[in-house]
Amino acid sequence: MPAEPAAGPALVDVQGVTRRFGTFTAVDDASLVVHAGEIVGLLGANGAGKTTLIRMVLGLTPPTVGRILVFGEPPSRSGRRRLGYVPQSLGLYDDLSVRENLAFVAAVYGSPVPVPPDLADVADALVGTIGLGRQRRLAFAAALAHGPELLVLDEPTSGVDPLARTRLWDAVHEQAEAGVGVLVTTHYMSEAQQCDRLMLMSRGRCVATGSEADIVAGTTAVAVRTTRWQDAFVALDAAGLPVTLAGRAVRVAATPPDDVRAALLRAGLEAQVDQVRPTLEEAMTELDRVPA
Ligand SMILES: Nc1ncnc2c1ncn2[C@@H]1O[C@H](COP(=O)(O)OP(=O)(O)OP(=O)(O)O)[C@@H](O)[C@H]1O
């Protein structure tokens, strides 16, 4: 996962962009580039500002401050023809069949769009009657109809099962390998790990950028080893610490080991407390807590 952006002209170049809605700042001084052939992931909790940033890249919402270039120019109608966008809501016609949805897109772009082989068995089913995973696959195929150079995907696999998610990501990688730049928002850490570069947003601000290793560096996590792991979990949770349980492994993000030991001692628990390499999720917990 390279930390530095790939060479070559940027497909998307966002510099120092802020977007306010009244007195509320949804995006605060964000910068971002996407080059051909790379997958850039936008991460952040609900309301972090990801969709607002994407809408600005698409030219749907103007920035309050800052500069956005897409294909070297401010977002425009002609630029939009060179990109494919899959919104969270998918933008499909529920009362048309899979085939009819693709025919509609084909009519707009003037080029035929074949039904993808993995949707062949539902080609004549109304979109509203097929599963969400297949709807997302269809929205993705529709976004590719005109051979875009840039794909913008807003939570493309939200609510779909792991198999469908893997298939969609295979299709995303295929596009990137063919030279398409991809800007994708996600809540799933497993998906973030598939991106070439990441940008983590918290309350509108960009709090970390780079590879997974860059983002994890400088954050902390501890592992708590004790036979009384259930009691340890309850005590740390009651102490207000960001504790998680994976099987019997108790882990605490964003907290120095001594603070974890102290919280355990207060609960009358003895345990081995070791500093460990944080997961991306733990790093995000810590970075999301950085005061504004
Ligand atoms: N048109 C608008 N008017 C006022 N506030 C808005 C508007 N659009 C977005 N916001 C606010 O800006 C903040 C960022 O919203 P945004 O949808 O960009 O977040 P997000 O990171 O995409 O979240 P999610 O993961 O839930 O989609 C939220 O607090 C939202 O309520």
Automatic annotation (TrEMBL):
The residues covered by the ABC transporter domain are: 12-228
Keyword annotations of the record: ATP-binding, Nucleotide-binding
As one GO molecular function, the record gives: ATP binding
Q: Which Gene3D superfamilies match?
A: P-loop containing nucleotide triphosphate hydrolases (3.40.50.300)
Which domain of life, per UniProt?
Bacteria
Tagged with keyword Nucleotide-binding: yes
Is Ligase one of the keywords UniProt gives this record?
no
Q: Which SMART domains match?
A: AAA (SM00382)
Q: Which SUPFAM superfamilies match?
A: P-loop containing nucleoside triphosphate hydrolases
What name is this protein filed under?
ABC transporter domain-containing protein
The upper taxonomy is: Bacteria, Bacillati, Actinomycetota, Actinomycetes, Micrococcales
